Amino acid sequence: MKHVLGAAAAIAIGALAPLATAASPAAASAGAHCARAEQDVWDSGPSRTVAARGCTIPSQEHRWYTVEIDTLVERHYKGESVEAGVDRSTTVHGRTIRCLGHTSGDGAGTVDWFGCPPV
Predict the structure, then answer these.
(1) Which residues have C-beta within 8 Å of that of residue 103, sequence separation ≥ 6?
(2) Do strands 86-99 and 45-46 pair parallel, antiparallel, or not at all (unpaired)?
(3) Cβ neighbours of 106 (radius 10 Å)
């Protein structure tokens, strides 16, 4: 009886192992990584767009992207317009944001993330 139970356990573990290894790359591909990014912050809160550089983006299209950013520079404006000027800048390291999508930026490797709700 012990041998039968041992064999059944081995078969069950062996059957689950390929599922676990197949799920890992799929979960990893849903995320993106950027080395540096900039986000404007207004009186009413952060912008829902982020300009980033040095990004690796998964090849599949997703409804939402999880973006890990090594260095995020937040420009805090004095008011609700660019004309009011920048009050201060803060740098945040190791930030993770969620965004709806992305477009190519200026052709110099910039990725413009959009639809990023405030954290």
Answers:
(1) 111, 112, 114
(2) unpaired
(3) 8
- Fill in the DSSP letter of residue 106: S
Cα-Cα-Cα-Cα dihedral sign, residues 65, 55, 93, 23: positive
Percent pLDDT > 70 in the chain is 71
For residue 104 the two structure tokens come to 């190519």
Determine which helix (DSSP H) or strand (DSSP E) holds 36, and give its type and residue range: strand 31-42
Verdict on whether the full-model pTM lies above 0.90: no
Kindly report the backbone phi and psi dihedral angles of residue 21, in degrees, each rounded to the nearest multiple of 5, phi listed first: -75, -30
**Token pair 């260095």: residue:** 71
Q: Could you tell me if 105 and 34 are in contact, meaning their C-beta atoms sit under 8 angstroms apart?
A: no
- pLDDT tens digits for 43-73? 888 999 999 999 998 887 777 899 999 999 9
Interstrand relation of 31-42 and 86-99 (parallel, antiparallel or unpaired): unpaired
Query: Whose structure tokens read 């973006």?
Result: 67
Contacts of 55 (CB under 8 A, 6+ apart): 32, 33, 34, 35, 67, 109, 111
